[in-house]
């Protein structure tokens, strides 16, 4: 596991439209940083994009005089478009994701009947991480943990004592991620969570989303491994794999598709880039009918 001697600084940014948390993690002011799960604003009704939210990340990084080394994606998100290319343009850094993105690209290349030139080989990203890989962010040491289930390509990033879990887990009073997207697997998610809950209980755990139950509290983004083990409503200690899979399968059958899944996936499997423009110079996103 990673060296927790250097405690990372973490700054969280909430996109209220998708209830997504993005992060800047850094070793020290004037030092090195990574940006995790940055959001591009997108109005589905008009098809217009905006970098208003991502610009707040840029302003923070510049204000702290940080050098961005990595722009990390926990997975190909289905609820928001990635702002990774904008972050790279403004701040530098390499866009990285887990190597199993190739499987997700293969699935959705068929769903959207993408152009022949689109290759399901991960080459759209600057770097593909493998399970168990290590990396550095200045003085910080990171480790890559493969956590499939929500999608086949989810990765968690353990950096010092900070664990970024993507959509694998939510806060204890919200539970776990759905597993009914193409390639999802509730059995795999259960096993992935067990790996995360085997980490030291004091490990800080940072969410990609928060959905406060019935509006009973404000949005939050941080918990601990110990708190999840004791209190996660879906995956606390003592919940069997069979019981979890039954619960998750029944619950997923009641859920509607995310509002932005169709535009998000088309962009995010391209590392946040838009599809190539048509011959009239306009970029279009497809809506497959009766496919999902």
Task: Give a description of the structure.
Helix 1 runs parallel beside helix 2 and helix 4 (about 185-195) crosses helix 6. The protein has seven helices and 15 strands. It is α/β, with parallel strands linked by helices and about 290 residues long. The longest helix has 12 residues, at about 50-65. The strands form three sheets. It has a six-stranded mixed beta sheet with strand order 1-2-3-6-8-9, covered by helices on one side. The chain has a single domain (about 10-270), classed as Ribonuclease Z/Hydroxyacylglutathione hydrolase-like (Metallo-beta-lactamase, Chain A), CATH 3.60.15.
Q: Helix count?
A: 7
SSE topology string: EEEEEHEEHEHEEEEEHEEHHH
Number of self-contained structural domains: 1
Global Rg: 18 Å
Strand content: 15-25%
CATH-defined fold name: Metallo-beta-lactamase, Chain A
Strand line-up across the major sheet:
1-2-3-6-8-9
Structural class: alpha/beta
Largest sheet: 6 strands, mixed
Shape: globular
State the fourth-level CATH superfamily.
Answer: Ribonuclease Z/Hydroxyacylglutathione hydrolase-like
**CATH architectural label:** 4-Layer Sandwich
The portion of residues assigned to helices is 10-25%
List the helices and strands and how they pair.
Elements (H helix, E strand, L loop, with lengths): L8 E7 L4 E7 L5 E5 L2 E5 L4 E3 L1 H12 L3 E6 L8 E2 L1 H8 L2 E5 L2 H11 L15 E3 L4 E4 L2 E7 L8 E5 L2 E3 L21 H12 L6 E3 L15 E3 H7 L9 H12 L8 H8 L24
Q: Brief overview, please?
A:
This protein has 292 residues and is an alpha/beta fold. The protein contains seven helices and 15 strands.
